[in-house]
Design a protein that fits this description.
Chain lengths: ~290, ~325, ~240
């Protein structure tokens, strides 16, 4: 029974990892751009909600709205004024710039919030659970987290495949050079894509704050989980990212069930194993 | 020869000679700093060879620094190897371990390769924390006998240590230079300038890249083994630190100039100069470093040496073949 | 007739290589103009310069009464200048209909809509939900032309639209040109097929080595004049 429980908890944890991964996947999909500071931005989202709700005592709904607006706006400006300038064939500049951002963000958070580990208390959400059988129950918080992940991914799928914006994003992903001949401004499209991705990063940060302890150095591990979920699922496949998150989550909880020291290691090893067996991911992008 | 070549060559030659006799003019604190500087120079040359010439941007070089360190400790403690064979053994074993890790990492391209190498480094860190005989998560100290074997008395030991560092630093520069002047150099320069063009003229870019990956892994492992010989103590977090062994190294190469031999040398000097001035500023010092790296990428991504070279035509290590 | 496009002394460089050496061209509203010339004559470079894909800052390029020199491509597109790029360049992850809709993203009003494009190229109706790249070459070219027209341009530039297509298909595609003109869109075609160009155009420009070597109406030009302008065969060379 403990094993079934471990798998179940892992699936729900996978929701969090899918939330971590969704923004990374979107940015890579549109711009072939990998943000090394992705995990650090998730942690920024976590500190923002903590500040708004705990330090400033704002209504949680207003706090969430503020986090999302701020993250999206910051993402837009960052892309427009910094990242667009280093996009190109050479992969080194974007990696180095976002690596630099990662160091700045981590140390900035350390300066502002100290190295203490923090968590956002969620009151009754934390203690409530839904009993599935006599022996298996799922916590309300992880359950809502998983639902959020499914909702976010469904929304991204909808925007990508059913809206004019999504059409433009896919066109830009295919062939950015001729998008201007269709009236598209690449710099603006990229900034909008990053704003969308940053919105999802904000959602991920809020759930990180509610689900686990975090500190200013928590970002890189989140980047790695997000990256693993994207690769396991298959590049350019949004539902694959959810599947990748779930597999990573299950690997970690089952690993932790074997020995507490194996949690993260088990996740990494399953990732590397799948990279060897299925280098294109479990659900590779459908090629037309 | 032109002044543009003579001046930099004279500067580097002076530096080389000064470093070769450093134990006779530097005090203990300076010597320690120089050893650290030479270690960073070697790490920077290796990262630059990998990223600057083959385009393999790794943010997981701490894997090989840590492996080198741990393997050296294991060889010294369990196999009783003396220091020099221990260092060389650690380097060779690191390169051997890099074969399967490279085989996996090469399934990823571009930026994903970068993060993949980081995952692999994390795997080694987490494994190291599980090995009880090497101290697990809290690490282990090198037996005093190993350090004692380096020489009679503290001064002799420090001189031996310094010359190991000097050889590592000098060989890292010399090896990259020799490599770039060899038949391989043409292939590497071709890959740096245009990978597609290199393939069309018959360079097996994947094979060249893989061999360079293994070579840099081995030399990075050697440097790591020395670094922890000097520290006398190793822990998983220190051995596999992304900040110490990759972020700082990338910073060095970027400010100095990616894709040149001189760049990492100049970058190392600038990095240590900045550290001497600003290390007390704590987090602000690290934020400043991040900001400088970003600024270099936005202003002139060739770095200081790259910009100087193109404006003044300077060159110290001639790797271009004259026809 | 109103002047739609005018370039004076347009030049273009790729690094040290100069591709265009001062092109003077005018196109009036309602015209179909053809540019002919051999490979490397600078035809495609000229089109890329007009659309803003190549920088033209500081030069003289007038479109519809205003200077477009140096404007970014997406702004030029919004003024009503669309291009069918060489090699079609359909977006592979978009369906036929989505490819057409992308063309309308600029929001210009006019006669062209999904319906009028499907009327122009009825073959596309049955394929509208297929990926753009799953079509035959001729149908892909129709999508590319339709995508350009969806922006309701005043002038559409067609770069080598007959390249690699069977003669029968080329004929079908060129049959659309009179209808395009009837809807108020002027056309500039770049063609290597001289016969096709002379058949469709009201005026012809011949490019050679980055310069205009000949210009006139198809009726006013003789075969030997064209051969000379096209291949650079001069009297002295004989």
């Amino acid at each position: 029974m403990v094993w079934i429980n471990a798998v179940l908890q892992g699936v729900l944890l996978g929701g969090l990892y899918a939330l971590f991964a969704a923004g990374l996947s979107l940015m890579f999909g549109v711009m072939r751009f990998v943000n090394i500071a992705h995990g650090d931005f998730i942690v920024v989202g976590a500190y923002l909600i903590l500040t708004f709700v705990i330090s400033w005592g704002l209504n949680p709904i207003i706090g969430v709205a503020l986090v999302l607006i701020l993250m999206a706006a910051a993402g837009y400006l960052n892309q427009r004024f910094v990242l667009n300038r280093v996009l190109g064939k050479d992969i080194l500049p974007p990696i180095l710039v976002t690596f630099g951002l990662s160091i700045i963000v981590q140390n900035g958070l350390l300066e502002l919030f100290s190295a203490d580990s923090r968590k956002l208390p969620t009151g009754t959400w934390e203690t409530s659970s839904l009993a599935l059988t006599d022996q298996i129950a799922v916590g309300l918080l992880p359950f809502l987290m998983f639902l959020t992940a499914v909702g976010v991914i469904a929304a991204m799928q909808f925007v990508f495949y059913r809206s004019a914006l999504g059409r433009m994003l896919r066109a830009t992903s295919d062939d950015p050079e001729i998008v201007p001949l269709m009236g598209g401004n690449n710099a603006r499209i990229f900034a909008i894509a990053t704003a969308l991705a940053s919105l999802v990063v904000g959602i991920a940060g809020i759930w990180l704050a509610m689900k686990t302890n975090f500190d200013p150095a928590a970002g890189p591990a989140r980047l790695l989980f997000a990256f693993e979920a994207v690769i396991i699922g298959g590049l350019g496949n949004i539902w694959g990212t959810l599947l990748g998150g779930i597999i990573l989550g299950v690997a970690q909880t089952v690993g932790a069930q074997i020995d507490a020291g194996y949690q993260i290691l088990a996740g990494h090893l399953v990732f590397l194993l799948l990279l060897v067996l299925r280098p294109k991911g479990l659900l590779p992008k459908v090629s037309h | 020869m032109q002044a543009k070549t003579i001046f930099p060559i004279a500067a580097f030659a002076t530096g080389f000679v000064a470093l070769s006799v450093a134990p006779f003019w530097a005090d203990r604190a300076d010597l320690r700093l120089l050893m650290e500087g030479l270690s960073y120079l070697a790490l920077a040359q290796m990262w630059n060879l990998l990223a600057g010439y083959t385009g393999l941007v790794s943010v997981g070089q701490q894997a090989f620094v840590g492996l080198g360190g741990y393997l050296f400790f294991a060889l010294a403690m369990f196999a009783g190897l003396p220091v020099i064979p221990g260092l060389i053994g650690a380097a060779v074993l690191t390169a051997l371990i890099a074969l399967p890790t490279g085989w996996i990492a090469f399934r990823l391209n571009g930026a994903y390769f970068a993060i993949g190498t980081w995952v692999i480094a994390e795997v080694f860190r987490l494994f190291a924390a599980q090995i009880g005989s090497l101290g697990g998560g809290s690490g282990i100290s090198l037996p005093v006998t190993v350090a004692r074997s380096l020489g009679e008395g503290r001064e002799a030991r420090e001189m031996t240590m310094y010359y190991i560092a000097f050889v590592i630093g000098a060989v890292s520069v010399g090896a990259v230079w020799a490599l770039l002047r060899s038949r391989w150099g043409l292939a590497l320069t071709a890959i740096r300038d245009s990978e597609i063009a290199a393939e069309t003229v018959g360079v097996d870019t994947r094979r060249v890249k893989f061999l360079i990956y293994i070579l840099t892994a081995g030399f990075t492992g050697l440097t790591g083994a020395f670094i922890f010989l000097q520290k006398l103590r190793i822990t998983p977090d220190a051995a596999f630190s992304v900040n110490d062994w990759t972020a700082f190294v990338i910073f060095i190469v970027v400010i100095g100039g990616v894709g040149t031999i001189e760049g990492p040398i100049i970058g190392t000097i600038l990095f240590f100069a900045l550290r001497q001035v600003a290390a007390d500023w704590g987090t602000w010092y690290l934020m400043l470093m991040g900001a400088i790296a970003i600024a270099v990428m936005l202003v002139d991504k060739r770095g200081l040496w790259g910009a100087l070279r193109s404006r003044l035509g300077l060159s110290a290590f001639v790797t271009e073949r004259r026809l | 007739m109103t002047r739609l496009l005018e370039t004076q002394g347009l030049t273009a460089h790729y690094g040290d290589f100069q591709a265009l050496f001062g092109i003077d061209m005018t196109i009036d509203a309602g015209e179909t103009v053809a540019i002919i010339g051999s490979n490397g004559a600078g035809k495609s470079t000229f089109l890329r310069a007009l659309t803003g894909l190549r920088p033209t800052a500081g030069q003289s390029v007038q479109f519809d009464g205003q200077s477009i020199a140096g404007l970014p491509a997406y702004r030029i597109h919004k003024l009503g200048l669309a291009m069918v790029p060489e090699g079609r360049r359909l977006f592979p992850s978009l369906t036929v209909e989505e490819n057409l809709l992308i063309g309308a993203a600029g929001g210009r009003k006019g006669p062209w809509s999904l319906k009028s494009i499907y009327d122009l190229f009825p073959d596309l109706v049955a394929k509208k939900h297929n990926p753009g790249t799953a079509l035959s070459g001729g149908q892909q070219q129709m999508v590319a032309i339709g995508r350009a027209l969806m922006s309701n341009p005043k002038l559409v530039l067609c770069d080598e639209i007959s390249l690699g297509l069977a003669p029968k298909i080329i004929k079908d595609i060129y049959q659309a040109v009179p209808q395009i003109r009837a809807n108020g869109t002027s056309v500039l075609v770049v063609e290597q097929d001289v016969g096709q160009a002379l058949a469709v155009a009201t005026r012809v420009y011949c490019f050679m080595e980055g310069r205009v070597s000949l210009t006139g109406t198809p009726a006013s030009l003789t075969r030997s004049q064209i051969a000379q302008a096209y291949f650079g065969l001069t009297e002295e060379a004989h």
